[in-house]
Amino acid sequence: MEGLGSDAETSFAVLGPLQVGHGGKPVQIGGRRLRALLSLLAGSAGKTVSSSVLVDGVWGESPPANVTNALQALVSRARAALAPGASREGGALVAGDATGYRLAVSPGQVDAHRFAALADTGRRALAGGDAHLAWTSLGEALALWRGPVFTDLADGDTASLWTARLEAARLAALEDRFEAALRLGRFAQATAGLPALVAAHPLRERLRAQLMRALYGEGRHVEALAAYEDARETFADRLGADPSPDLAAVHLAMLKGEWREERGAPPEPPPDPAPGPVSDAAPGGVAMRHAPAPPDAERTRRSTLPARLTSFVGRETDVAAVGDLLAANRLVTLLGPGGAGKTRLAVESAEPLAGHGRLPGGVRLVELAGVAAGADAREVAEAVSAAVGVRPGHFQPGLAAVEAQRPHDPLERLLGALTGRHLLIILDNCEHVIESAALVVDQVLAECPEVRVLVTSREPLNITGETLWAVSPLHVPSPGEPARSSAEAPAVRLFADRAAAVRSGFSVADHLDVVVRICRELDGMPLAIELAAARLRSMSPQDLADRLDDRFRVLTGGSRTALPRHKTLRAVVEWSWDLLDERERMLARRFGVFAGGARLAAAERVCGGEGLDPADVLDLLGRLVDKSLVTVTVEGGRSGEARYTMLETIRAYALERLSESGERERMRLAHAEHVTRFVEEIEPGLRDRRQLDVLAAMSAEHDNASAAIRWAVDAGRGDIALRLVGALGWYWWLTGHRNEAVARSREALRAGEGAPPHARLVVRAVHNLNVYEQLQLVSGTEAAALLRDIQESAVAVGRESHPFAAMATSVIALAADEHTEPDCVAALRTHSDPWVRTWARMLRGFLGIGNGRVAEGERETELALAGFEALGDRWGAASCLAALAETNYLRGRVGESADQSRAAIAMTEEFGAPEHTLHLRGRLAASLWTAGEREAAEAELARAVQIMTEAWDPLTAVILLVLRGDFARERGRYAEARRDYTEALALIGRSRQALDTMRAPACTSLAMLALQEGDLEEARLLMADALESAMLRAEGPVVSVAAVGCASLAFADGEPERAAMLLGWAARMRGFEEVVGFDHVRVTEAVRAALGTEEFSRCHERGRRVSREGAAALVR
């Protein structure tokens, strides 16, 4: 059997009558319906085909009375027929999920997918100029076809659509192979096959051009010109149009005798937009369109523009105009009503900027739809920060001094991070936060002169410098306009494009008058047109136009709409809503309570009951998906569960209908209780080996949780608010949602003011720890006050603390007293929770390392590492590894340090935040350099710098610039080193973040460069600056860096004894004798050589006995 594989896998051939094989032998599939089912599943190998599509494809317009049971029975027959393959391959080949069934095989086991892959290879080869490879690959692809496809499917939309799309793919492959033949000069082979194809597809211009070129290439010039005349007459008769300018240009060149295939072959047609997720309306994986070229890597890395899922119609002039406005103005606002296409226009206008060098920082899309109406500027700034890659730092070992410099205000942090960046920010959907958005944009434009902003909104920001562009509806034909120009009107073109995507064979020429009427009644609004075109899956254009009459009296300004600014969207959604039956409407309005979508089990639990059987939810959700009111995606991670989501405009309409039904408060309560139970159940997994899965699950439920908290607070249900905030505390901590944690915990504490102490304890800890992190109170009465607040609550509870409360207490206690182990930390050693005991051990380790008891600290940290690894907590393990990598590096164990850094990087990357690896990458680069792997070190550092440009943070930038300067200085590239050091210091000076701690290392490195260049006076001035900055901080490692610099300066001044003492004092500040480090090694060897080993040791020991307070004379 030609279409079947010969290995042990089960293979499927659908490019002709269905064939199934296993181990190279045919598998008999009896019965048309069973063959139809397997044909559909094989066509979408590995992807789910919805039950409704399967039913239509198997039974057509005559489904059985109990269609669900009938489909299940047919699936059982399919599993039995495929049982030999299933037993060898580890499970049933036909698997069910939330929306339908899928064939659990790889695409390579289905001939249609092999065809698609080979055709794509050929197409790409053509684009790359390799006609030989294209000819071969396309020949192999076409050889897989054995006859008509999907002949077992029942007559209906599914059969028509699937057949048409596979035939379209075959035709495209044939065209590509003829193109390869022409480029190879095989004109006779082309002329042998092209006439029949042209006769079958007389309106296909590419085939017409290929036939002309083949005839001309064979020397049959008169016939080539006649072929053009035939095309012109056919187009005029059938379309009322002339051939395209491209085809006319080929004809003219042939007419003049100037056509040369090798010189003037017409360009390939532009690729269609990249297809979106494979729907169950087409064979999955089969390339139905020309594949786009691979995305430009640099553009992808630097921009967050969404991939195109559909073509862009009718806005070419607008795109050019908006691009010109952006080139001349720093703030452009696209104004228009909902559904006018503002977002798509913004993305299309920004795309050229993302793909070229005009904006090195790229383009970032900020979707404000998820920000609550009336949110303040802080929340808008948080949304912008997340989109441009600015995140709060995590608590990390050895970085307390670094983290202390981060500003707590989101707007200040955003402005600091945008300093010096050249990028375009798209603020999408500003109207519900217009005042706050205006404030943020005004500040960004004033403080960050290289940033440009493109806004979409229903009203202007009304700030200085704003340039407005009105986004009007698409042009619709005027009454009496000729058919040719009517068909080319943007609104009609959009309708035709979207209709063809859902209804195979649709031709606007066959329904032009009705389509023009529809577009007029929809006022040319793109969203309304797209939703209307989608209805052609189940309605004729005439039926659609007839049903729109009443609805679009509202669109033209009828008074029945409650929200005038939503009237166009409301009319479109209401029209779709009216097509639902009562049970579908009941589920749809109840489902509106899910702010972030839901899994099936959640929808069943929350929406079921009170007139809706939970067992029916699956079927009803599938129907809502089919009717485009709900979308379904598969969650990432290992869960692989389906997630159902409503578009926000449809959800808002559903909530209004829910209020009208009188069910809103009951459903909001059910939703809040469900989310609370769910989060409470999975929260312990954040501290064990379930960590990544739980993080993914909580991230998926983040919007639902936020909505539930807001409802609970507004409804006076402080008990629910306290429970939910307490369960989310650790998630917010791990993901850096500091401001959200503070705001939500504060709201919950107010709402639950009368709740018992145990209900408030964890929320109090969430609030106080995140306040501490925001303000970075490393000592003093404020930290002590936060600590007492938690401790008093714990005493009132009178029982062992929740792990989060235990962590919060210990972190803040260490801030209040950095040098001794607080009693509350010591008490955690006997906690019943093994994670808390491991946490306490890690803190003791960090405390020992930071206070000079390095051996003890390393031992405790290693034990903590083992504990976290046993528990499966990646965050804890990475924190321990980071601390050990630091000390091992300074001790000279650079290989071990590099391994630990790599392990910590791998764990941290699993959290999906590569910017949190930057300090680790810097340490890894230093270790590699010290080990002699200089090229690898520079490559690692370059990788860190690349990530840093994505998630810009001035603090990280300073650290990496200083390290890169050190590398350059060690290679003798002093000019490069000075540029990096100077840039780091300039960044410190102009940043809105306080970076005093990093000023000391930067000044020290620049001072050492001045010494190497022989400028002692500059070195002295810089070291004075470094010392002043270092002594402001309590951490020994920072002071030790400056002390080594002072030792180098003392030696250059001819004072080797004082230099040795300074080296000893640096060792005391650090806690051990550093054996690596660029300047430390150099000055130590020089001083020892000058004094002799005995005198060096004596002076060094004297320096180790000098206290911090007594160091003033030493560092003069």
TrEMBL record:
Family: Belongs to the AfsR/DnrI/RedD regulatory family.
Keyword vocabulary terms for this entry: DNA-binding
DNA-binding region: 2-105
Stored Gene3D superfamilies: P-loop containing nucleotide triphosphate hydrolases (3.40.50.300), Tetratricopeptide repeat domain (1.25.40.10), Winged helix-like DNA-binding domain superfamily/Winged helix DNA-binding domain (1.10.10.10)
PROSITE patterns: OMPR_PHOB (PS51755)
Residue intervals of the OmpR/PhoB-type domain: 2-105
Organism field: Sinosporangium album
The keyword Ligase appears for this protein: no
InterPro entries in alphabetical order: BTAD, HTH_77, OmpR/PhoB-type_DNA-bd, P-loop_NTPase, Sig_transdc_resp-reg_C-effctor, TPR-like_helical_dom_sf, WH-like_DNA-bd_sf
SUPFAM superfamilies tied to this protein: C-terminal effector domain of the bipartite response regulators (SSF46894), P-loop containing nucleoside triphosphate hydrolases (SSF52540), TPR-like (SSF48452)
Molecular function GO terms recorded: DNA binding
Residue span of region Disordered: 261-302
Compositional bias of kind Pro residues: 266-276
Protein name: Predicted ATPase
Biased segments, Low complexity type: 277-287
Keyword Magnesium annotated: no
GO process terms (BP): phosphorelay signal transduction system; regulation of DNA-templated transcription
Residue runs in coiled coils: none
Pfam family, one: HTH_77
